[in-house]
Write a structure and sequence with these properties.
EC number: 5.1.1.1
Catalytic activity: L-alanine = D-alanine
Pathway: Amino-acid biosynthesis; D-alanine biosynthesis; D-alanine from L-alanine: step 1/1
Order of helices and strands: HEHEHHEHEHEHEHEHEHEEEEEEEEEHHE
Number of domains: 2
Bound molecules: pyridoxal-5'-phosphate
Helix content: 25-40%
Function: Catalyzes the interconversion of L-alanine and D-alanine. May also act on other amino acids.
CATH topology of the largest domain: TIM Barrel
Cofactor: pyridoxal 5'-phosphate
CATH architecture of the largest domain: Alpha-Beta Barrel
Strand order of the largest sheet: 2-3-4-5-6-7-8-9
Length: 384
C-alpha cells in the first residue's frame, strides 16, 4: 500500500507542474465579499443589483451568482440568454435585463423565467400593452424598470416623455405596480467633470415626486457621488475589485482584485545586444540580457496591443514586456542577472499587479481586459 500511495503522489506532482504552464484565472471569493461589503458600507440605504453581464466581467457568471446568492438584492445582465442560463443554473435571485427585450417574441420567455425588464422605448411599451390586450384578465406581474436618458444619449426615453410612459406602465395590467426609475451616468468616473451633477439634476427634475424607487449609480457613482445612491445601486467593475475613478483617490476605499491572471515561464534564453525579439522584430535589445517566454497570449485574452514595457510579475519581480504579444506567448526582459527558470510563476494582473497599470499600457480599460478572458483560460475558484 505505501508504494501505491507514493506513486499516486508523484503523479499528482507531475500533473501540477503541467498545469502551471496553463494560463489560469484565480477567482478570489473573499475579495468579492470584501468588495461587496465596501459597496454596502458606501451605500448603506440602497439595495444592490450586482452586474453579472459578460460572464460577470470575465469572472464566471455562475460562480459569482452562486457565491453572492442571498447577499445582494438582484442581478443585472444585458442579454436574455445570459439571464436564462442563470435561471437554468438554479439562480432564483431577482434578475434584471438591463436592455429590456429586443423583440416581442421574447416576452413569453421573460414571463416564464421571471425576469425583470428595463423599458427604454415606445416599441417596448407598445409590446407590453399589446400583450396585456391579448392576455385579458390574467395578471402577469412583470417587474419593469423605466429608463430615462439624462445625457448619455444611448438608451432611455426623453425626460419630457417620462410622465406619459410612467402613467401608461402604471395602468398596463401586465406590469407590476412598483416601477423603478433609472438612468445611466456617462462620466461618473471623472471626478473633475460637471457632467454628473448635471445628469443628477436632470434626473431629479424628471422624477420629482419620488414616490417610486430610483437608481442611477454605477461603480463610479457609488464611490464618488453619494447624492445619487437612491434606492438601488448597480455596481459592476468595483465588485470585481477595480476602481474606475480618475484620479483614483477616494480615501478609505481599498478594493481587492477578484481575478488574478497567472501563467508560467516555458522558456528562458540569453540574447545579445542588437538581437531582436518576436513578430515584426519590434524590439531590439540594447544590452545582453535574458528573455523569458510566458505561456499566455492574445488567444487567452492578454491584450495584443500591450506596449513594450507593460509590467509583468515574474516570481514577484516586475519586469517589462518586450516584443509583440503572440497568440500563445509573450516575451519579457528578465534582465542579465536573472535566475528565473522554466516553470516559474508569472502574474499578468491581479493581487500583486494592478490591472489598471496593465490597461494603461495596453491603451484600454480594465473592463475590456477582464471581459476578454477567453475560454482557454482555466478558472480556479478559491475561497481565500
Ligand atoms: C454595466 C452597467 C452598470 C455597471 O457599471 P460599472 O461601471 O461596471 O459599475 C450599471 N448600470 C448599467 C445599466 C450597466 O449596463
Amino acid at each position: 500500500m505505501p508504494v501505491r500511495r507514493s506513486k499516486k503522489i508523484s503523479h499528482t506532482v507531475i500533473r501540477d507542474a503541467d498545469m502551471q504552464a496553463i494560463a489560469t484565472a484565480d477567482i478570489h471569493l473573499d475579495a468579492l465579499d470584501h468588495n461587496l461589503a465596501t459597496i454596502k458600507r458606501l451605500a448603506p440605504n440602497s439595495k444592490v443589483v450586482a452586474m453579472l453581464k459578460a460572464n460577470a466581467y470575465g469572472h464566471g457568471a455562475f460562480t459569482v451568482a452562486h457565491h453572492l446568492n442571498g447577499a445582494v438584492d438582484a442581478y443585472g445582465v444585458a442579454r436574455i440568454d445570459e439571464a436564462i442560463a442563470l435561471r437554468e443554473a438554479g439562480i432564483n435571485t431577482e434578475l434584471v435585463l438591463m436592455e429590456g427585450f429586443f423583440s416581442a417574441d421574447d416576452l413569453p420567455l421573460i414571463v416564464a423565467h421571471n425576469l425583470q425588464i428595463v423599458v427604454h422605448s415606445e416599441f417596448q411599451l407598445s409590446a407590453l400593452e399589446a400583450m396585456a390586450a391579448l392576455t385579458g384578465q390574467i395578471q402577469l406581474p412583470l417587474k419593469v424598470w423605466l429608463k430615462v436618458d439624462t445625457g448619455m444619449n444611448r438608451l432611455g426615453i426623453e425626460p419630457q416623455q417620462f410622465q406619459s410612459f410612467y402613467q401608461r406602465l402604471r395602468t398596463c395590467p401586465v406590469v407590476d405596480r412598483e416601477i423603478v426609475v433609472l438612468s445611466h451616468l456617462s462620466s461618473s468616473d471623472q471626478l473633475n467633470s460637471d457632467i454628473t451633477p448635471r445628469q443628477i439634476a436632470l434626473f431629479e427634475r424628471t422624477c420629482t415626486d419620488g414616490s417610486f424607487p430610483r437608481s442611477l449609480a454605477n461603480s463610479g457613482a457609488i464611490l464618488a457621488w453619494p447624492e445619487c445612491h437612491y434606492q438601488w445601486v448597480r455596481p459592476g467593475v468595483m465588485l470585481y475589485g477595480v476602481n474606475p475613478l480618475h484620479p483614483a483617490n477616494v480615501d478609505d476605499v481599498q478594493l481587492k482584485p477578484v481575478m488574478t491572471l497567472h501563467s508560467s515561464l516555458i522558456a528562458v534564453k540569453s540574447i545579445q545586444e542588437g538581437d531582436s525579439v518576436g513578430y515584426g522584430a519590434t524590439y531590439t535589445a540594447s544590452r545582453n540580457t535574458r528573455i523569458g517566454v510566458v505561456a499566455i497570449g492574445y488567444g487567452d485574452g492578454y491584450p495584443r496591443h500591450a506596449r513594450i514595457g507593460t509590467p509583468v510579475l515574474v516570481n514577484g519581480v516586475r519586469v517589462p514586456l518586450v516584443g509583440r504579444v503572440s497568440m500563445d506567448m509573450i516575451t519579457v526582459d528578465l534582465g542579465p542577472e536573472s535566475n528565473a527558470q522554466v516553470g516559474d510563476y508569472v502574474e499578468l494582473w491581479g493581487q500583486n499587479l494592478a490591472i489598471e497599470d496593465v490597461a494603461a499600457d495596453a491603451e484600454t480599460i480594465p473592463y475590456e481586459l477582464l471581459c476578454n478572458i477567453t475560454a482557454r483560460v482555466k478558472i480556479d475558484v478559491l475561497s481565500n
